[in-house]
Amino acid sequence: VYLVESGGGLVQFGGSLRLSCAASGFTVSDSALTWARQVPGKGLEWVSSKDSDGRTYYTDSVKGRFTISTDNAKNTIYLQMTSLRPEDTAKYYCTISKRGNWHIATREADYGPRGQGTQVTVSS
């Protein structure tokens, strides 16, 4: 399994970014997928997941602002982020559960392979 995140950057308050996660070694359409984020000195915080049936889940602080999706032809996972706030500043990772591709990983203990992350910085 290999995951490569991209698309982060510096954006002003209220701006938008789209993060991408190119996956290999598994099929995104058959797997539950997760985006998580981390700020220095803290653990990984669950942000959003998409199960293999296409259902999506979001932590309360991003509901209505972030959208998780996939492009099955490209085997890529996306996180569209709008109305960004300074508290969204973090390094963002995509991951899958180490408990199996059916499992929706929302806890750090269940996170399996992930990429190097992509930094998102929101200025006020």
Any chance you could write out the topology, listing elements then pairs?
Layout: E1 2-6, E2 9-12, E3 17-24, E4 33-38, E5 45-50, E6 56-58, E7 66-71, E8 76-81, E9 90-97, E10 111-114, E11 118-123
Parallel strand pairs: 2-11
Antiparallel strand pairs: 1-3, 3-8, 4-5, 4-9, 5-6, 7-8, 9-10, 9-11
Descriptive account of the structure:
- This protein is mostly beta strands and 124 residues long.
- It is built from no helices and eleven strands.
- It has strands at 2-6, 9-12, 17-24, 33-38, 45-50, 56-58, 66-71, 76-81, 90-97, 111-114, 118-123.
- The strands form two sheets. Strands 2, 4, 5, 6, 9, 10 and 11 form a seven-stranded mixed beta sheet that branches.
- The radius of gyration is 13 Å and the shape is globular.
How large is the share of residues in beta strands?
Answer: over 45%
Low-pLDDT segments, ≥5 res = none
End-to-end span in angstroms?
Answer: 37 Å
Largest sheet: 7 strands, mixed
Summarize the structure.
By secondary structure, this protein is an all-beta fold.
Index terms:
single chain, about 120 residues, mainly beta, seven-stranded mixed sheet, four-stranded antiparallel sheet, 11 strands, globular
